Amino acid sequence: MFQDFDDRSDASQTASRVERLRAALREAGVDGFVIPRADEHQGEYIPPSSDRLRWITGFTGSAGVALVLPASAAVFVDGRYTVQVRAQIDASVFAPESSVETPLAAYLKDKAKGLRIGIDPWLHTLADVKSLEKAMEEAGGALVLLPHNPVDRIWQDRPLPPKGRVTLQPVAYSGLESAEKLETIREGLRKAGADATVLTDPSSVAWVFNIRGGDVSHTPLPLSFALIPADGRPTLFIDADKLDGEASAYLSGLADLEAPDQLEGALARFADEKAVMLDPALAADRLSRIVTKAGGRVIEKEDPARLPRARKNAVEIEGSRRAHLRDGAAIASFLSWLDRQPAGSITEIDAAQKLEAIRTRFGEADGMPLRDLSFDTISASGPNAALPHYRVNRDSNRTLGDGEIFLIDSGAQYQDGTTDITRTVAIGVVPDEARQKFTLVLKGMIAISTARFPKGTRGMDLDPLARIALWKAGCDYAHGTGHGIGSFLAVHEGPQSISKRGAAVLEPGMIVSNEPGYYREGAFGIRIENLLLTLEASEIEGGDLPMHGFETLTFAPIDRRLVVRSLLSEAEIDWLNAYHAEVAARIAPRLDEEDRRWLELATRPLPV
Predict the structure, then answer these.
(1) Per-residue pLDDT tens for 278-293?
(2) Which of these, 298, 324, 309, 337, lies nearest to 504 by C-alpha position?
(3) Per DSSP, what are the bridge partners of residue 119?
(4) Which of 348, 399, 400 is nearest to 377 (CA)?
(5) CATH number of 14-154
(6) CA nearest 400: which of 386, 418, 416, 379?
(7) Strand ranges (DSSP E) for 178-320?
């Protein structure tokens, strides 16, 4: 199994750990300390050795930050985790705060007046530090960049850094040789007037050098850095223990290989009177200070690999299509199996394990083994489904009860593509209110699927389309509508997103998720998710401008039993019927006879 069901949340030692941390802070000469959920790469995917936030607070979510002050402490999370954080932290030590309503910087202005607040500059981006410095200046205090992380000083049983084996991603799956990608980066540097860049995002390093790794769960990342000059040979900073003979020989042909702890010295030597490009939203502030101290200049621009990585090439697109057909068949087989189980006989863990086993079987049959899940499966019944990022464990495990909603959000890592799909299904006959909310969510999902939009449209411009039916009913959801997807890489990939903050323009080749939802705390949750490929703009008959659109990549039934037909327009019913006809045509040949019979019923048309 690629997923375990252990409860990694433990706040039983929080009070003593915070007291020990405060003692360490006094020794360091600061009054407080900021603990982000981050490592030196500033990514969402971190190894256990970097999960300081979980260790100190017990909170296991994928985003958050803690602040420890002399007499108080707080944990800041967004709307995805407001329920979860209250359940996991020791409320006598940490107070939960909304990172949206009261961002850390605003909190510091009010609560840290005259104080000295420490940070680890390897764990905060350039943009973060600027914001925190401004806040502390306005609070009459100071932001102190500490040479050592005080949490690490007291974390006696801290796990060792990961040493996942590096593998190669052949051009048959990557579509481009690494040499071509490196030239793309160099062209971007020359255009920006930069002498070099430091790639700090392991996804970008993996993409540029056509490698994958095993340093974090569910995402094939090799934790590493790359210093790429506009002219000359790049240097890859990666642990040699991760490289076998093949990987070492391959990478040595592309770059000089150095240990990660050599990055600071190498960058300082290079930066003298040089301009170095750093992404202010991704690069650690420590790197910026190394450059300026060495007499160099920082050019703050987006990671030059990020946009070309997001624009999938033809090989990557075809790989994604294959992966989704394989994965859609596995999902259909799972839903067929689920429908045959008596109500009350299956638990959330049973469902997650069964789906992984079916994915494994379909991958082997297709000659493309399941390499991993793309994230811990969200297998959530009843009130657990109201937690958007719920992770089932043995203590929280519930039986799928008769008359309840069951939500399963899951994904797979295949070498030819990364998948992410959510289906919400009825277990028995569910209340009318749940069916109504499901249909409103479906209307939003259809609105995004069928959207046409001109060149230059951003994700934030489309986001209201997914919400308008819910808004008219006085409802909303506290997460984005869609995120970017990597190619056998991170299931969450930027810069593109469909969200209230999605400022990146949607360009051809970008893959995004489409996943509106609705959550009633303590009762039920609903989400429907397909992945979409952004298409080249094309003419519309009688129109004035060519318009982009989306191609649906995900093919699996949407539960017709939860649809309130009267709430759908004729066009929306047409879309659902056409989608289900395509699901049946594409998926049925991959199923056995029993599952094909189920699929035929699950995809039959709704009456118009």
Answers:
(1) 999 999 999 999 999 9
(2) 309
(3) 145
(4) 348
(5) 3.40.350.10
(6) 379
(7) 196-199, 211-212, 225-229, 235-237, 256-258, 275-278, 297-300
User: Of 233, 290, 241, which is closest to residue 267 (Cα–Cα)?
Assistant: 290
Residue 144 neighbours by CB under 8 Å, 6+ apart? 29, 30, 116, 117, 118, 119
Can you give the pLDDT at residue 34? 98
Please name which of 317, 321, 327 lies closest in space to residue 412, comparing C-alpha atoms.
Answer: 327
The C-alpha atoms of residue 310 and residue 414 are separated, in whole angstroms, by 18
CATH classification number, 311-602, choose in 3.90.230.10, 3.50.50.60, 3.40.640.10, 1.50.10.10: 3.90.230.10
Q: What is the mean pLDDT of residues 516-529?
A: 97
Phi-psi region of 382 (alpha: psi -120 to 50; beta: other; left: phi over 0): left
Q: Which stretch of DSSP H or E encloses residue 186?
A: helix 178-192
- The residue with tokens 């294959």 is 322
Share the mean pLDDT of the chain. Answer: 97
- At the fourth CATH level, which superfamily is domain 167-309? Creatinase/prolidase N-terminal domain (3.40.350.10)
Q: What is the mean pLDDT of residues 371-391?
A: 96
CA neighbor of 33 nearest in space, from 44, 41, 45, 21: 21
154-193 residue pLDDT tens = 999 999 999 999 999 999 999 999 999 999 999 999 999 9
DSSP 250-270: HHHTTSEEE-GGGHHHHHHHH
168: nearest Cα among 419, 486, 488, 417:
488
User: Which pair of tokens denotes residue 58?
Assistant: 């017990």
For the chain, the first-to-last Cα distance in angstroms comes to 43
Domain with CATH 3.90.230.10 in the chain: 311-602
